[in-house]
Design brief:
This protein is an alpha/beta fold and about 475 residues long. About 45% of the residues lie in helices and about 10% in strands. GO terms for molecular function: 3-hydroxyisobutyryl-CoA hydrolase activity.
Length: about 475
């Protein structure tokens, strides 16, 4: 309960479903320490309650969740000890891990703003339903921070180098773009959300609308954001801008030049290293970096960014170091080392053991960490069917997709079947491997699969499910 006596997380019981509503609409449901602890309590209670089969998470007002309440974190550090800020992130990252390893399906209704910490509450869950009102971003580099809440894990697994683009520039994505790159699993028009929730609470779910559209310019993004350093990325974008008048390129360059140079360097390192690590490793790595930022031993950019954008709102942060060329590798390395402070310890995540795949098991999957994986976008009904089979004690191994072409079942890419685009057969990226989407399909010729994925997007395919 907040200082004003209002519950920051509301819980509603409907049959076998529990609906959790983040209740700070005036703050765009920004995650306070109290809200994080309330969410942890509710997730734990629902997981232990055999009467609960499904969780729905949503936000009150025009935002799902606009991120962590970092202004409050900065205040607590400035008026106390940096370890108070570290406590906030310790519990937030633990909540992210619990969600990623949760034994029951979670449906997040992303009808509005989803930024920073809001991504951690939703992307690690089983289903993310976007609408025409959805606005997604990871804007941390503009604040002198870095994309955290496990983002080094899930954005590093976006197609090609789209993760670098999203993480470094803070670009905003709409609902169809979230669906296209895999950050969302479903698209439902906002007018149908009440009907969707009603169907979910009855565990009699009809296929939602699925709209697959839109991320253009993937080739340019890959060319530029595959470079080894932030400086080379900016240079490549500037060269593209000479012959390409697309507004997004100019906007990306502007965002990169306005962001904290140190945050950009740290974020690129996190994304690149996170691509080869499991979620628990990513969260532990992010916590180390976060603690170095909070104790101000190397840079005070996070506090300066919050001052300029959130407190004084002069929008004129004074970054230090002020330029990318003033930052060497040793300065960045420091953020990834253990914190030299008495009483500090690495993030220790709780042991998790449920019917659903453990993160530790996923980390052993070399394919998940070393190569792109494509997956079928399943209808909620199909996923819930699998969950019901598990609940009845059936085998936990992944079944073959009943709707997959024979050559895909055989592990081969579907040739000459590009027109097979029914709503349950849309190819999307399996972003966090922790989602453990059932009927996961791996193609032998990954490069060919990736190229076809791009071509489908460039054609702006739009598919609408039957009512």
């Amino acid at each position: 309960m907040g200082n004003d006596g209002v519950e920051q997380v509301l819980i509603e019981e409907k049959s076998y479903t529990r609906i959790l509503t983040m209740n700070r609409p005036r703050q765009l449901n920004a995650l306070s320490f109290q809200m994080i602890m309330e969410l942890r309590k509710h997730f734990s209670n629902c997981e232990e309650n055999p009467e609960v089969k499904l969780l729905i998470v949503k936000g009150k007002g025009r935002a799902f969740c606009a991120g962590g309440d970092v202004a409050a974190v900065v205040h607590s550090v400035n008026t106390g000890h940096w370890i108070q800020g570290a406590k906030f992130f310790w519990n937030e990252y633990t909540l992210n891990y619990i969600i990623a390893t949760y034994s029951k399906p979670q449906v997040s209704i992303l009808d509005g703003i989803v930024m920073g910490g809001g991504a951690g509450i939703s992307v690690h869950g089983r289903f993310r339903v976007a609408t025409e009102n959805t606005v997604f971003a990871m804007p941390e580099t503009a604040l002198g921070l870095f994309p955290d809440v496990g983002a080094s894990y899930f954005i590093s697994r976006l197609p090609g180098f789209f993760g670098e683009f999203v993480g470094l520039t803070g670009v905003r994505l709409d609902g169809p773009e979230m669906l296209a790159c895999g950050l969302a699993t479903h698209f439902v028009p906002s007018l149908r959300l009440n009907a969707l929730v009603e169907s979910l609470t009855k565990v009699e779910i009809s296929d939602p609308f699925a709209v697959c559209a839109i991320i253009d310019n993937l080739d340019v993004i890959d060319r530029c954001f595959s470079k080894n350093t932030v400086e080379e990325i900016i240079s490549a974008l500037e060269q593209e801008a000479v012959n390409n008048a697309d507004g997004w390129i100019v906007a990306a360059i502007s965002s990169l030049k306005q962001a904290s140079p140190m945050s950009l360097k740290i974020s690129l390192r996190l994304i690149r290293e996170g691509r080869l690590q499991g979620l628990s490793q990513c969260l532990i790595m992010e916590y180390r970096v976060c603690c170095h930022i909070l104790c101000k031993q190397a840079s005070k950019d996070f506090f300066e960014g919050c001052r300029a954008l959130l407190i004084d709102k002069d929008k004129n942060p004074k970054w230090e170091p002020s330029r990318l060329d003033l930052i060497d590798d040793k300065m960045v390395d420091r953020y990834f080392s253990k914190v030299d402070d008495e009483g500090w310890e690495d993030l220790k995540l709780p042991p998790r053991g449920h019917g659903r795949a453990k993160v530790e098991d996923i980390e052993k999957d070399k394919v998940a960490s070393e190569a792109p994986i494509e997956a079928w976008s399943l209808s909620m009904a199909e996923e819930m069917l699998w969950e019901s089979l598990v609940a009845k004690g059936k085998d936990h191994e992944e079944p073959e997709p009943a709707f997959a072409p024979a050559d895909v079942k055989a592990g081969k890419w579907m040739e000459n079947k590009k027109d097979d685009l029914s709503p349950s057969k849309i190819w999307v990226k399996d972003i966090p491997a922790t989602l453990n989407l059932k009927w996961r399909v791996q193609a032998e010729r990954l490069d060919e699969l990736k190229n076809l994925w791009k071509e489908d997007l460039k054609k702006k395919i739009k598919i609408v499910a039957k009512d």
